Amino acid sequence: MEKLFADVIVDISSEKLDRSFQYRIPDSLAGQVKPGVQVWIPFGNGGRTIRGYVIQVTDRPACPVEKMKEICRIAEDQNNINSRMIALAAWMRENYGSTMIQALKTVLPVKQKTRQKEERWITLGISRREAEEQLEVYRKKHHVARERVLQAVLEEETVSYSLVRDKLHVTSQVLKTMEEQGILKIRSRRVYRNPVAHNEQGGGRLRLTESQQETADAIVSGWDAGDSRPCLIRGVTGSGKTLIYMELMERVLARGRQAILLIPEIALTYQMVQRFYHRFGDQVSVLHSRLSQGERSDQFERAKNGEIQIMIGPRSALFTPFPRLGLIVLDEEHETSYQSETSPCYHARETAIARAGMEDARVVMGSATPSVDAYYRSRLGEYRLFELENRYENRQLPRAQIVDLREELRAGNRSILSRRLQEAMEERLAKKEQIILFLNRRGYAGFYSCRMCGAVMKCPHCDVALSLHNGGRLVCHYCGYETKSPGTCPKCASPYIGGFRAGTQQIEEIVKKRFPAARVLRMDLDTTRNKDGHARILSAFANQEADILIGTQMIVKGHDFPRVTLVGVLAADLSLNVSDYRAGERTFQLLTQAVGRAGRGEVCGEAVIQTYQPDNYSIQAAAAQDYTEFYRQEIAYRQLMSYPPASNLFAVHASCEDGALLDMAMTYLRKYLRKIDPEEKAAVIGPADEAIPRIADRYRKVIYIKHEDYRQLVRLKDQLERYMEINSGFQKIRIQFEFNH
Ligand code: ADP
Ligand code: ZN
Ligand code: ZN
């Protein structure tokens, strides 16, 4: 049917984002009116015309057609940033199935009338020599916060106030006191003493190695030759990817365009940001999730006005409204935080590529362990692939060994610490080196496995681990398959079969008992609940206030502890046996990262990976730090089971307070899906309970649909949306769509 009506918003700079008005599209403009297009419309009764943005076109009128006014004409100035951001929101709505308002609110931050905050800078108020003496005093008195600032100012000369507050976690009170004592100066303008010397000192501009330079040159010459495909750099940690990003940014900036660098929040450390400040000075701005809406929109305003050229931040920095965006970089491309958990459930990589396409910008992604999806696309030629196999100066990667926990049991050791790990810990403690014990927990439900032979109970249809639920039921979260947990192992008949759960607290107790003299820190949700808890523990460990750090994935990302020479992965199976087709991928990534934590300094590190499945390819490849071998096996599994990226997977998540109503609705949805796809080209799986079947009194279920063709899934989604709109039975049901997640 022809799309005859346009929803228009007249004010995008305020909270009125959700006030849209509908207009008729005159025949003369048919086909030209699209989301993002700026139009002139009659407004109010006085015959006044104003400008507005089209956010949606539809064939269904929202009010009687006779009463509806007509769009006058299309505005002259079409290529403005607001138009482009609205077009991006429309793309997101279309591809991720949210409402247009949700998409707009994601893309355009609501502006609040706040006072423009000035960036402030900290410098020394005393001489360097005095400062060094003062630093010693702080060290002796254990004034760790003051020590951290002073150290930073000594190293950098000028540091950003907000960065010190947010990333070094120093309170404004402490800074004020230090200013009053004359130790620090706080100013609203950045002072460059001698920018060139400054750069050399901080190492902002390093000479690229040959392979780094080759990669950067190849990327740019591809661009110059008109190749606009996204680029993926697979480079082991420490191979200098960040340096390549900076090189590319510089070239983009030199052409009068701007750049966005996306980094998962957890990896957005002080050191990381400082490297960019060094090189690019105050052309750089940083976003993080602790900024208020107002502060965020201030930053966006500065970007719009051309005051800054580079924005660094997590997922949402992708929507920085640069007037001439030239480059989007995604660091740590594989990170799950690039996937939004709230509607629209967009993926930053896909959305970055879509935005770049609309604005003729380029996309570069980097990771030591690229997502299977991105690597698959590069192998298909959708992305250009660049690989850096060596660390800078060929620094050694740590040695990793796998310990078979089944052997431990056979040898009579029932502790979670294997004999090898205990030995290694003793050695390190004796040498006063530090240790990380890593619990790669993921998800909530436990799994069911045999301690004797390592067998894991899996769904016979989906080939993923079953989750253990109350009452000993084992459940598949894809298809809903259910079975009772067996009393003995179906493979080896051993009675040592059961649910597997392990907590950080338990482990802390075990470690303290075994190594009573060691100082132990624990980092998990409990110990980081209060503000700054996370950073406090990390800096205490970095300051060597403890010998052993025990924690979950929070501890293995983005932090450098040069004194850590041993990493123990306590049970690699914890992330391997999650009821999720990507469990192998996540395990490989987590283990590779964990192993990489050992031996960042001069001393070569060691990792011990404990597992009940020593033959598993994810574990073996991680121990060998061999990405391509992991990929080869993983993609074969995806192809065999038709999981993404070999096929496409569309999820319909539904929740409702009334469990019976939800059951019925999902059954209807399934029937409807069969009806609109009579040849069964799409595989419909479920409905099944979600991994967490009930949250906040709402029952939760999911249907999965697999199809080779992504567009067909989008078509099914559109039809489902219609079906649910028309049928009143779905009114009480909250639906969320997700593609390839
Ligand atoms: P990645 O982002 O791939 O993990 P980085 O860019 O962080 O790698 O580099 C890792 C370390 O090696 C950094 O401390 C960096 O300063 C150093 N390094 C990398 N390349 C060079 C180079 N060309 N010159 C000097 N130091 C380098
Ligand atoms: Zn067994
Ligand atoms: Zn199943």
UniProtKB/TrEMBL annotation:
UniProt xrefs under HAMAP family: PriA (MF_00983)
Residues the record lists as binding Zn(2+) 1: 450, 453, 489, 492
InterPro entries assigned: DEAD/DEAH_box_helicase_dom, Helicase_ATP-bd, Helicase_C-like, P-loop_NTPase, PriA, PriA_3primeBD, PriA_3primeBD_sf, PriA_C
GO molecular function: 3'-5' DNA helicase activity; ATP binding; DNA binding; hydrolase activity; zinc ion binding
Cross-referenced SUPFAM superfamilies: P-loop containing nucleoside triphosphate hydrolases
GO cellular component labels: primosome complex
Enzyme Commission number, as recorded: 5.6.2.4
The protein's name in its UniProt record: Replication restart protein PriA
Organism: Candidatus Pullilachnospira stercoravium
UniProt domain Helicase ATP-binding: residue ranges: 222-388
Record's cofactor remark: Binds 2 zinc ions per subunit.
Enzyme class: isomerase
